[in-house]
Amino acid sequence: MNWEWLPHYIPLLIHGLYLTLVLLVSSVVIGGIMAVPIGLVQVTGPWPLKVLAKAFCTFIRGTPLLIQLWLLYYGVGSLFPGIPGIRDSFLWPILREGFYYAVLAFSLSFAGYEGEVMRGAFLGVPRGELEAARAIGMSPWKVLTRVWLPRAVRLVLPTLAGEIVGQLKSTPLAFTVTVMDLMGARAKISSDTYIMYEPLILIAVIYMILTFFITRAFNYLERLVPQRR
Amino acid sequence: MKHTRRLFLAAVAAATMFTASPAFADLKFGVDISPYPPFTSQDASGKIVGWEADFMDALCAEMKEKCAFEPTAWDGIIPALTSKKFDGILSSMSVTPERMKTISYSKIYYNSAAVIIGPKSADKDFSPEHLAGKTIGVQGATTHANYLEKYYKPKGAEIKSYAGQDEANADLTAGRVDYIMADGVTLGAFLASEAGACCEQKGAVPIDVAILGAGVGIGIRKEDTAFMDKVNAGIDALTAKGFFEENTKKWGLDGKLILPKDMK
Amino acid sequence: MILAVAPLSDLLSFGNKGYLDELMWGAIATLEISFLGYAFGCFLGLLGAVGKLSGGSLVKNILGGYTTLFRAIPELVLIMLIYYAGTNGLNQLLISFGFEPIQINQLLAAVFVLGFVQGAYSTEVLRAAILAVPVGQVEAAKAYGMTSYQQFRRVVLPAMLPYAIPGLANLWLNITKDSALIAVIGSSELANVTRIAAGGSKLYLVFYLLAAVIYLVISMVSDQFFAWLERRVRRGQRKLA
Predict the structure, then answer these.
(1) Tell me, what's the pLDDT at B19?
(2) Which of B195, B255, C87, C211 is in the most buried spot, having the most CB atoms within 10 Å?
(3) Do B69 and B39 share a domain, yes or no?
């Protein structure tokens, strides 16, 4: 085993870790927020929205994330030369960075998977509770924000740790669109030093530690939120 | 249950039969899976064609072997060789002192200049100082990536690395990188295509043999010395026959490649 | 030398001018890698589940390490590690036992890698399914004087299937999608073939969309198949009210 390269690349690895975490947190937050309406309209929405949300979930869950990411990055990118003035537009600094495509692809993916989970959770809230809320005169919006959504989220909480770990394990794909996350840092180290295995082993260990912390944090969180059974 | 088992076996048999892999060749050469025209690229019929594909055919005819390409991801092509996924690397791989620590190389069979290309609207200056703050695309794990890292990054250029040359080219067309550095011949092919209409060659970079290498050779495992001798004898025979000149003419690359004859 | 790109109708055709036949072969390769990897993974999973339930403490610890590790590390990282280092290790093992090292073809390597990752998940799925078989049924088999193999083959295995199939169906859908990750190490499966077609034709949007549709069809057909299978293995089971 050869670890001589390690001291020189610590800043790169730390930056890579930072990008991995930013990718994870932003996609979980954005995707998680999107998942609520996607789950809700499948349960109560008007049929066009229902069909749309269902189709979205089916597409996301039925195709590899790698293809979704390449479709967004290279597919959309191939249209740029045909759009005059795009390089002068205010969006250009975002459009030229692989990082934002990765955030978008990972968020949509998380929304697709969690949207399906939220659908089940909304259905899983006992009808009696919703009827009781309506009976005391809550508006539909209040029923949603005070009873339905909090109860659904509580139902989802035990599975959330697993979903977030799954999302973490998807983030290394970002390196295929030039993002220098942990996986990208590894690729660069291998490219510079011709050492293949040691950087891979190192990042494998880092991902394991991250998984461990996520699992622990959610166990703790779950105990904080009271639940009567 | 019996029925299910028969179904399963039939499926396995069908799956094995349908495999369109060159499993029957005696020798396999690893090649970058992403297109690298005019040396190696997979055409619409699924065949790998190009200057180097013809070279492999001629070399194997010389060695009296049946050969096939094994397309592989570029950034893992050396570990794939050392872990015996194939017998050699025949994929425009420059011979460098760093790489020689892990594997051996045959005689050099061509050399060409490393160049930087960029949009026609930009000026001709491509010095590291001038490209400070610009983004330069390059295929990862290449000598060109190492070159940019040594000369351009310290002056303030941003280096974006890609799994394949084709993706780097696509991002130059899309405008997501400002310049690309790679081998002059493959970039020449790109510039001649519709997608390369945006851009032009800015010039060849000053040579640094320690990083860029002295030319391209076939990568071979260190312990396979008998195979190495056989390959080298084949290259010598092809040089004597004038194959390289002929092949270069066939692919319209006259004057763009330095061939074994010129190196002596 | 102008490399003009062929017209769309040519590129989107079967035969030597178009990429559709390559895409079709890529899809077949994807199915093949997935199928063989899945079979290998389920086999490992069955061994793992039995080992976890009835093995000694050493076996249990090793299996616990395997399932924890393989489920905590990103598939992409695992695939790269096993693909390059794992096959190397296998050869070293062969050499140390006095065998000739073998050249592992890419398809087999991909199957091996995906199967190993899959095995960690199917171990857990099958373990849970075996535990879900009512103890009374196993005891009844024992009372009939069946050997432990007979108990497993005739009672546990058929009785656990209804519990295992939803989980196994999910794993199949995952492996068809994970097989795309093999593209990163290079193989002629659908994702990589698409990458080549997209690069060769410059029709990135068209080909990636097309690939997405093919994957979608694979997963939708699989969904139907597993729904049918589940109904079939649940024959004779009491319907849930």
Answers:
(1) 43
(2) C211
(3) yes
Residue of C173, C208, C209 best to disrupt the A interface, most CBs of A under 10 A: C208
What is the span of the domain harbouring residue B192?
114-212
Angstrom distance (rounded) from CA B108 to CA B95: 8
Q: What are the tokens at C54?
A: 């009835």
What is the domain count for chain B? 2
B51 is a domain residue:
yes
| Closest CA–CA distance from residue A199 to any residue of chain C (Å) | 10
Contact between chains at B174 and A78 (C-beta distance less than 8 A): yes
Six-digit token string for C96: 């140390």
- CA–CA distance, B167 with A130 (Å, rounded to integer): 53
How many angstroms separate the Cα of A148 from the Cα of each of A113, A136, B33, C21?
Answer: 20, 15, 51, 50
pLDDT digits (tens, 9 = 90+) for C116-128: 999 999 999 999 9
Class of A14-224 in CATH: mainly alpha
Could you give the ipTM of this predicted complex?
A: 0.93
Q: Which of residues 49-88 of C touch B (CB under 8 A)?
A: 80, 83-85, 87-88
Q: Are residues B87 and B167 in the same domain?
A: no
Please state, in angstroms and as integers, the Cα–Cα distance from residue B240 to each residue in B59, B179, B237, B255, B259, following that order.
13, 39, 5, 19, 12
| Whether B185 and B246 share a structural domain | no
The CATH number assigned to the domain holding B240 equals: 3.40.190.10
Which of B21, B33, B170 lies at the smallest CB-CB distance from C204?
B170
